[in-house]
Known about the structure:
Blueprint: H1 6-12, H2 17-40, H3 47-53, E1 62-70, E2 79-86, E3 91-105, H4 112-115, E4 122-129, E5 134-141, E6 146-152, E7 156-160
Antiparallel strand pairs: 1-2, 2-3, 3-6, 3-7, 4-5, 5-6
Amino acid sequence: MRYFTAELWEQINSENDGIREKANQKWDKNCEEYFSKLALNKHRFSPEVYDFLSSITFHGFRIVSVTIVHDNIGNLYPMNVEINLTNGREEWMIRYRHVSDIQLSYNSGSSDFSKTRGFDEWGYDELLDVDETKMSHEILFASGASFRIEFDNQMISLVKK
C-alpha cells in the first residue's frame, strides 16, 4: 500500500489527539494524491469499473471466498482470481483475469479473539500502476492482513450478485 498504509490507519485511530490530527491531515493529502493518480489511469479500466471504484468503496465488507482459476493453460497469464464479498446486505464478486502475481500476508494473531476473525473487514484498497501494461489491486484488512493482485490492464470486472 502506497497511500492508505496500515501505519497511517493505526495513527488515525490513535488515542493521542496530536497523532490523530496529524494522521488525518496526511490521510486527506494521500486521498487527493491517490484519486489524482487513479484518474490518470482511467484508461486502464472499463468505464463501469472506473466509475464504481473511484466513487464507492468495499470498506466494511467481508470476504466470503477467494478462488484461483487456471484458464487457457498455455496462454500467457492463464490464472484468474475471483473474490466474493458481502456486507450482509449486498454481495459482490471482483474478477481479475490475466493475473501475473498474487501476494497474501495473513497471520491469525496470538489471542483467541484474533484467531476467530480471519481477514476481518475490508479496510482500504488501492489500484496502482505496475508498468504500462499491468495494474495491481492492494487490499488492507482490519486484521492487518493484506492481499495484492497484479493483472493486465482492463482485466478487472465487478459483478453484483
